[in-house]
Amino acid sequence: SIFHGRYTIHIHLVNKQMSGDLPLNINIKEPRWDQGTFMGRAQHFFMVTDPRNVLLSSEVLEDARVTVENYRLGIVKPGLTEDELWRAKYIYDSAFHPDTGEKMLLVGRMSAQVPMNMTITGCMLTFYRTTPAVVFWQWVNQSFNAIVNYTNRSGDAAITMNQLGAAYVSATTGAVVTALGLKSLAKHLPPIMGRFVPFAAVAAANCINIPFMRQRELKCGIPVTDAEGKRLGESSKAAQQAIVQVVVSRIGMAVPAMAIPPVIMNALEKKAFMKRFPVLNAPVQVGLVGLCLVFATPLCCALFPQKSSMKVSSLEPELQENIRQSNPNITTVYFNKGL
Prior knowledge:
Layout: H1 2-19, H2 38-48, H3 58-72, H4 82-95, H5 113-126, H6 131-151, H7 161-186, H8 191-195, H9 197-213, H10 215-220, E1 222-225, E2 231-235, H11 236-268, H12 272-276, H13 281-301, E3 307-311, H14 317-326, E4 332-336
Antiparallel strand pairs: 1-2, 3-4
Helix pairs in contact: 2-13, 3-4, 5-6, 5-13, 6-7, 6-9, 7-9, 9-11, 11-13
């Protein structure tokens, strides 16, 4: 009957929508939210820096990688919904490098920032009174930073073990020396100022560590592309802008975690309860730092778009010339700034 025929067609259409043969035009190269606004970037980075991503198994990561790479090739897993596709994309982004596609070291991933920084910063703020403790925790912190800076570098150029070793030694030494210098200065200041030494040391160290660990980018440049992602060349000027933005974001991340807990702890330590249980000092401090970092990490990553841009007129003269000859209508280039 006609009714039966229509009914069958209707069922077929409903099934087609439910099985969700996804359209192939969802742009998963870009984040799900508008990166032109701070709120869009913040939503994106809350997903990327989600500490729960650290707990995902290799199978889940591999599954996400296959889903994303297949989708880019036009192969859709039967029954895949749009939400599942975006979830896979964010799992993929949290664990694989955007330029090389390699799986990143676990502790270097942005999703490991909160648990790792929470522990290290909490210990730095708790054990700041003796020189060996300052040296040890600053060294641990800078070693962690060196791994993060290497893991989240921009570009796909290989870096030799010698370059990496030299960068690591110069970055950690510079940071530890700065911390000790500031610690000796703080002796002549009120006690509350002593608590801020770790923050000043971390801010100064970031200014040293990031450029050192990413010095290859400053020498050789990072890939710049047009709006469609077509590679136009390598630029050191773009690398400079990328590194400055990352340094600002990293110092921003450290501000709430290192400025708020010391003030609270200063007040708490005077309370009878904390005097009776001094063992609570470190856990309370670590907890406060964690609370600050859960918000500070994504919000400071969101200060600048991950896909940063630059006017062609600001690039190196030779690169400007090349771009003008091959693509005369391009005025802006784009690059991954790293994190």
